[in-house]
Amino acid sequence: MSAVVLGVSAGIAVYKSCELLRLFTESGHDVRVVPTRDALRFVGEPTWAALSGNPVTTEVWESVHEVPHVRIGQNADLVVVAPATADVLARAAHGLANDLLTNTLLTARCPVVFAPAMHTEMWEHPATRANVATLRERGAIVIDPAVGRLTGADTGPGRLPDPPEIFEVCRRVLSARALDLAGRHVVVSAGGTREAIDPVRFIGNRSSGLQGYALARTAVARGAEVTLVSANVALPDPAGAKVVRVESARQLREAVLAAADHADAVVMAAAVADFRPVRQSDTKIKKSSAEPDPIHLVKNPDVLGELGEIRRAGRQPYPRVIVGFAAETDDVLANGRAKLERKGCDLLVVNEVGDNLAFGTPDNAAVVLVAGGESVEIPPVEIPRGPKEDLADVVWDLVAARLA
Ligand code: CTP
Prior knowledge:
Radius of gyration: 24 Å
Mean pLDDT: 91
Bound molecules: cytidine-5'-triphosphate
CATH class of the largest domain: Alpha Beta
CATH superfamily of the largest domain: CoaB-like
CATH architecture of the largest domain: 3-Layer(aba) Sandwich
Strand order of the largest sheet: 12-11-8-13-16-17-18-19
Structural class: alpha/beta
Number of domains: 2
Oligomer: single chain
């Protein structure tokens, strides 16, 4: 059981924090809620007290004999501020201590997670950008807000991510404790591409996106700025990741290359179609056509190979670590080793597919092949069957070591 401080500042998204609190208490954590004065205009003190089972105060002047302005922060294993308004980010960035929450932020020596929520204009204002950059520089995790419907009719970046996704980041932060990707930008591709035959049909594959999403989620929890290039995935957006949606291999290539330009690492977990139909019909192909036309295929660009190629050509700045995935059905290690070299990546995570492994399941098992020098063969890292998030953490361990 960990001691968690849930800081709540005054935004309309406060109602979602009740669910976040619930997720913490139901998984056995001891939660102390520290709202700002105005946050109580949205959800009152009795709700927080009843749901947390702990006293709730916004002031430093109550129970002074317990020195709450220092003790709450000192005793915390994690402080999460959700929602974090532009005002609270500003006060935290400038080290103000004008209420119990900001005192707590100054005395906490544990990981601190901010989940901002505000209107797009406020989030994008240079003042807020600078405050977020300052907090990140100091090691706080600031989860990028989700994009979507805001308080009124407007939409854009600024929504509080869904509570289960914020909880997931916090859970990982509590278990890992390592913020070894803080200040790093990583790009993850996930899912499977679709190559249109006509407006209704496509050539696709079985990738669910679970492994790529686990990679994105774990990277956020380790402090990275994450761009997730997502191809046809029906999973909730991981909190804090910038999600770029694509459909085809060519769209995925464009999105990955654009994001890779200023990234420290790229992990290609997506299943990218090797071929696409030469011709795509603008209208639905009708069954009435007497003989169906054969579908002729043409090769798609190899995105991973291209990343390796660009880096070899010495164009800067370019990702220092490139990670590929390979699904193999036979001769797993030999095929993997050849692929690692052919594609010019640093790490290749090789899955054996079949036997209920890999596609659409929460578990995975793999070996990671590591590129050495000309004549060095570094022994592969074996990852036993387990949750895809464990595999993701091993990949980030190896990436972080290479970036260090
Ligand atoms: N990949 C890619 N672009 C493609 C095909 C694959 O970037 N057009 C990436 C995948 O994201 C994965 C890696 O390459 O990280 C290996 O994919 P895999 O399908 O195993 O390799 P292929 O190049 O398709 O090789 P083969 O078909 O010979 O197994």
